Amino acid sequence: MNGYTPHRDGPPEGAAPAGARTEKELLRLVATDPATVHARALALVRDGTGAAAVPALRAAGLAAKELGRLAEGLGLLGRALEIAEAAPDGAYAAAQVRMSLVGLLSAGGDIAGALAHASHAEGVLRGTDAARLAANTACALARAGRLTEAQDAAARALPVLRRGHDPAVLNGLLTNLGLARAFQSEFVAAEAALTEAVEVARAAGLRHQTAMSTGNLAFVVSRRGDVPRALRLYAEAEPSLSGERLAQCRFDQAETLISAGLPGEARPVLEKALASAAEHGYRCDTADGLLLLSHAELDDDDPERAVHTAERARAAFAEQERTGWMLLAEHVLLRARWAAGERSPVLLRSAAATADRLARGGWTDAAAGARVIAARTALALGRPAGHLLGPVGRPAGSATARITAWHAAALERAGRGDRRGAVAAVQAGLRVAEEHADALGALDLRARAAGSAAEPAELGLGLARSARELLAVEERRRAIARPVRVRPPADPERAAALAELRARSGRRTAAIARGVPPPRPADLAALEAAVRARTRRRSPAAAPSGRTPGVTEVAAALGGRALVELVGIGGELHAVTVADGRPRRHRLGPAGAARHDVRVVRYAAHRLAAGDDPDAARALAGAAGRLDRFLLDPLRDAVGDRELVIAPAGPLHGLPWAALPSLAGRPVTVVPSARAWLRARTSAESRADGHVLLVAGPGLEHAGREVAALRRLHPDARILQGPGARAEVVRDALDGASLAHLAAHGEFREGNALFSRLRLADGPLLVHDLDELAAPPHLVVLSACDIGRGDEGDAVLGMAGVLLALGTATVIASVTPVRDAHAPAFMSAFHTGLAAGLPPSHALAAAPRTPGVLGLLCMGGG
Asked: To the nearest whole number, what is the mean pLDDT of the chain?
């Protein structure tokens, strides 16, 4: 995402004790108590005459702007300027008014007018006033897109202010300097300036300015890639902001959400902030917000809407004579046209011309993105592309910018026939994306991080020729979104929200069962939002370590097994197999038919879980046979009848593999990737000596019988059932278990997998609860419903995937509903195999299958 939010107002005109009465004191109080200033200043205007009213009018005008009444503020400043210019000795006072007008006119979108007033005042003001004018001018220049000039203006005034005694002005200047540097991807210098701005304001007791600078620091931290810290800083800043400052903070939060792969969540935030900015006449902020909204719509797979919104943003920038920002709107339009499928000579010319204009304007990240679009369009048209990319230097800037730069390098190398060099550049870009993901503590953010590298990954997969190359690129791609174990500090507020969510969910379930009105869904949604927000603010205690395994390492670990990793390239499905140390590549064919048959198998399995259904049985047999021929027949020479480790792709993660004829009775382990399997094997080989836990949840007719049968095999097991099977009790009992078997109703949440749940006595045990485990169970059996499903594509984000990420060696769970009556016998057979010393994958394969338990899979180490 190459979103840009121009910033900001110049520094507030000071702060003073709440008892201020004089015009000078009121000017200092504007930012901290605008309502009081507004009332007192207007009273002073009524009592004063002539030039004496000018400071009070200035204070009232600035306060009106802080209160969201921009037009009123401009009117009051206009009166002040008329009076000052008419006074015989009013030149300095007039210049002070012009200094104030710079900020208000910038907010209203009249950048040319703001800079004209700045020019008139520049030769008149002295000392701190001159420095304040420089800060306001820097803001106006940044809003105009003249970033280098903005940074120079702020840097010239900084030494003067550091020697002075006006912390409010110093704070504002440091804030604008930091933001100007951030727009030019100078993140270290930007963060240093904004950190100093926060410290200056905090030391002076300037609460409002501290919040403003904290919000802007969050903006820079987000661009640098530390999303959890940025979200914490936004949460710290927002309660002390109001009016335009609050709208700007929410625009920045929306950009962070977009960069984190959450455009659907960013859109309502932007729409609300846009409505507020438009209502109060903040035309500059309105244009900025429209630009961000177009990015959100585009990243949310709505290119047609993005075109409409980007056109509105471009028109608003043009009206405000903000030509630098017009270029950014044009960049969004280019991206939207590409996303909508345009591959025309017109798009090629537009992209190349826009890239050149962006580069001249200092928008290096957007320029690189436009060059990539130009090069890809040229390649699609069969034309040379290398000259469109220009010199490709060492990538720098944000993670998005570096990924884009490596993408450009890959295209440039491919264009001159250096295929291996192009693949290496793709690999480098994917490593940047993985490093970016490793800074994220929340699993849903990690899962979405892969989106930033989707296009270069697609290029790399298309360029790969050998099985080794294809496996290397695909494993690197999957590593970006892999769930990883993080152990952040305990968060009492998150724990409280989870407990309240559990209690209300339990009450809702009970109310529905009794036929009485349940609690409002909105209450549950608000609690889920609170849990999600607190989770996303958590940083990992340490960056996850790991590397992409090579074929030699995978082959050594496989022994007599065979790896089958499925790879989607364009609209086709390919497979890489590794068996007997030999990697091979296989083209399977178009993926569309396989997706259809997976849906048929899942639907039929769902019907069969409810009861015998001859039509569903026939549909399942037909679709499963077709999938078997499509997916496995081409691989028979490579894998033979070996035990399989399968890394599916896309919707194949939800396939009940035991339904395929050639896999009936055959040990199969399903994994997110070869890397994930190697990690799980390491856990499997260091067997735990913990306790056995057997849990029977409520409302599951055969759970008690199932647990009673298993107790005979595990006489020393800890049993939790009935009222004793409470969510937090079960969670705590999972810690350190060697084997945990949970027979409970489950619910997979489509599109929100971390709120998937197991129903227990007092409410649900959520996926979010699991990262509280210090030592997750070695082997987990989830004998319920389709709780084994994953979400977020190849991230396999769900209860099973998260358990594996936390360090569980193997999970037995179902990807389709389980027929309750069939589960006890099947689970008894499975546990009997375990007790006889069989590995979990072999014990599962040996247990007799019925249609009601087709979806149960062995996941992880096997």
From this structure: 85
pLDDT digits (tens, 9 = 90+) for 686-734: 666 789 999 998 877 788 888 988 999 999 999 999 899 999 999 999 9
3-12: per-residue pLDDT in tens?
Answer: 444 445 544 4
Give the mean model confidence (pLDDT) for residues 433-459: 79
Task: Give the per-residue pLDDT at 483.
Answer: 64
- Identify whether the C-beta of residue 58 lies closer than 8 Å to the C-beta of residue 82: no
Closest CA to 786 of 693, 852, 692: 852
User: Is residue 178 within 8 Å of 194, Cβ to Cβ?
Assistant: yes
CB within 8 A of 209, min separation 6: which ones? 11, 12, 15, 31, 168, 171, 172, 201
For residue 786, pLDDT over 80 is answered with no
Q: Residue 779's beta-bridge partner residues? A: 739, 810
Full strand arrangement of the beta sheet holding 763-766:
746-747, 757-760, 763-766
Q: Which DSSP helix (H) or strand (E) runs through 584? A: strand 582-590
The answer to whether residues 824 and 853 touch, using CB atoms and an 8 Å cutoff, is no
Show the tokens assigned to 288.
Answer: 């900025």
Distance CA 857, CA 472 (A): 26
| 127-144 and 167-183 helices, crossing angle to 10° | 30
DSSP notation for 177-233? HHHHHHHTT-HHHHHHHHHHHHHHHHHTT-HHHHHHHHHHHHHHHHHHT-HHHHHHH
- Residue 570 CA: distances (Å) to CA of 387, 407, 424, 468, 574: 26, 17, 20, 19, 10
User: Is residue 56 a contact partner of residue 26, using CB atoms and an 8 Å limit?
Assistant: yes
3-class SS at 573? strand
Cα separation, 105 vs 283, whole angstroms: 10
Tokens of 401: 């910018």
Which neighbouring-strand residues pair with 485?
none
What is the four-CA torsion angle of 603, 606, 607, 613, rounded to 10 degrees? 100
Give alpha helix (H) positions in 68-166: 70-86, 91-107, 111-122, 127-144, 147-163
Q: Which two tokens stand for residue 80?
A: 């002040």
Rounded CA gap, 822 and 187, in Å?
59
DSSP-derived 3-state class of residue 707: helix
Q: What is the CA radius of gyration of the chain?
A: 31
Confidence of residue 580 (pLDDT cuts 50, 70, 90): very high
pLDDT at residue number 2: 44
**Buried b / exposed e across 527-547, counting CB within 10 Å, b at 16+?**
bbebbbbbbbbbbbeeebeee
- The amino acid at residue 652 is L
The phi and psi torsions of 295 (rounded to 5 degrees) equal -65, -45
Q: Phi then psi for 481, rounded to 5 degrees?
A: -95, 5
Q: Is 19 exposed, middle or buried (0-12, 13-18, 19+ CB in 10 A)?
A: exposed
Please give the Cα distance from 294 to 296 (Å, whole number).
Answer: 5
Q: Residue 570 gets which letter from DSSP?
A: T
Tell me which amino acid residue 859 is: M
Tokens 């996850």: give the residue: 544
The closest of 703, 699, 722 to 711, measured between CA atoms, is 703
Q: Which two tokens stand for residue 209?
A: 């300015």
Looking at the chain, the number of H-run helices and the number of E-run strands are 38, 14
Please, what sign has the CA dihedral across residues 16, 18, 20, 21?
positive
Cα–Cα dist 555/562, whole Å: 8
Over range 195-208, report the average pLDDT: 90
| Residue 393: per-residue pLDDT | 52
pLDDT at 18: 34
pLDDT digits (tens, 9 = 90+) for 476-526: 888 887 766 655 567 778 888 888 888 787 777 777 767 777 767 767 788
CA distance 217 to 214: 5
pLDDT for 647-693, tens place per residue?
Answer: 998 889 889 999 999 999 999 999 988 988 988 888 766 666 789 99
As beta bridge partners, residue 718 has 693
